[in-house]
Design brief:
The protein is built from 2 helices and 6 strands. By secondary structure, the protein is of the alpha+beta class.
């Protein structure tokens, strides 16, 4: 599997659809997708890989396949867009959330849906994003003693 194409991800009815190149056949790319659910692990589709079991020949095609699967199999009725504040930085997916006046984030590396965010709260979305950017730029890298 190649890296997840976070920059092409689409938020749809409480899910984040994340396409990726599954493989190649005769120089043509075959696309698949993974899902994140706003319900997290309460959803059978959270971090699921291609639950529709259908592959696409383009990013737009695989996004439509995923949407159709969600329309037919959704476990809940979405009330908003929990994925609206998402950013891609150095191929990493950052999703910022706000609750009770505090901000926190999820951080997914380029190749897998494994949240590696630090358990930290922030006063603003800007403060949160700035802290993450500094970390990815290497400003918070710990050096081991000699």
């Amino acid at each position: 599997m190649s890296r997840l194409l976070y920059e092409k991800s689409v938020s749809y009815k409480g899910y984040l659809i994340i396409p990726f190149v599954f493989g190649k056949a005769n120089k043509y790319e075959i696309y698949s997708y993974k899902l994140l659910s706003e319900l997290g692990y309460k959803s059978q589709f959270h971090k699921a890989e291609n639950p529709a079991r259908i592959y696409g020949n383009s990013i737009s095609n695989i996004l439509e396949i995923a949407k159709e699967h969600i329309d037919k199999n959704a476990e809940f009725v979405n009330q908003g867009d929990n994925f609206k504040s998402r950013y891609v930085f150095r191929n990493n997916l950052i999703i910022v959330f706000q609750e009770g006046g505090k901000y926190f984030y999820d951080h997914y590396p380029p190749e897998l849906l494994n949240n590696i965010a630090a358990p930290k709260l922030f006063k603003s979305e800007y403060e949160c994003l700035n802290w993450i950017k500094q970390g990815l730029d290497g400003r918070y890298v710990r050096t081991l003693g000699r």
